[in-house]
Amino acid sequence: MTTFVLVPGGWKGSWAYEAVIPLLERAGHTVHALTLTGLRPEDDSATVATANLDTHAADVLRLLDHADLTDVTLVGHSYAGMVITAAADRADGRVSRLVHLDAFVPRDGESWWSTANDYFREMIAVGAAETGYAVRPPGGGDPRRRPHPLASFLQTIRLTGAVDLVPRREFVYCSGWQDHTPFTELRARLDADPGWQVHDLPTGHDAMNEAPEAVAALLLDE
């Protein structure tokens, strides 16, 4: 039995994985899906304003501690690639597999902002203009999305190198939105790295809802 911890990307909560979770549970596995600090319905403005990447990594580590989880498969979508990298680096060996689901894979000293493309940087700048600390969701999409803490997009990640010792590290490249994806060069870099396994899905960025069965099959290693 595998223990999955699923971390959503920008503006989203645990509900982002609602189509995938029952597929994993039906196969007999344990699933924990997180809503990060600042994205919860009850979070006030001060909470959103002060949440950053370290806060979100701490959310993951707190779950590992409270549920006494080891041998974890940690999955992050989009922005959450930053989060699962930081958390795995600090998890003292409790993460055995990382899955970056069309997600950022930062190196030490990088941030979401520094590794994103101009399309997304402009989206963040425009979305944060109203408050200066929260980025409103882009137009369209699920109405459950909430303003995302700006500081989490801007904070640089600090890594010790422990994340490189995670036994399995995987990157899923969604090829169906090539006009806007920031991950094409990242895919090429990781594909050339023997420490990584790269998968391709012919979907848009929201693969969990566009192709939940395919995502579940990748996570189940089918």
Brief descriptors of the model:
about 220 residues; alpha/beta; six-stranded parallel β-sheet; two-stranded antiparallel sheet; 10 helices; 8 strands
Characterize the structure shown.
- It is a single chain.
- Helix content is 34%, strand content 17%.
- It has 222 residues and is α/β, with parallel strands linked by helices.
- It has one domain (3-219): 3-Layer(aba) Sandwich (Rossmann fold), CATH 3.40.50.1820.
- It has a six-stranded parallel β-sheet with strand order 2-1-3-4-7-8, sandwiched between helices.
- Strand 7, helix 8 (184-191) and strand 8 form a beta-alpha-beta unit.
- Helix 3 (53-66) packs across helix 4.
C-alpha end-to-end distance: 14 Å
* Overall spatial form: globular
User: What percentage of residues falls in helices of 4 or more residues?
Assistant: 25-40%
Strand content: 15-25%
What gyration radius follows from the Cα positions, in whole Å? 16 Å
Low-pLDDT windows of residues: none
Q: And the CATH topology?
A: Rossmann fold
Number of helices, counting only DSSP H or I runs of 4 residues or more:
10
In round numbers, the mean pLDDT is 97
The top-level CATH class is: Alpha Beta
Superfamily at the CATH H level?
A: Alpha/Beta hydrolase fold, catalytic domain
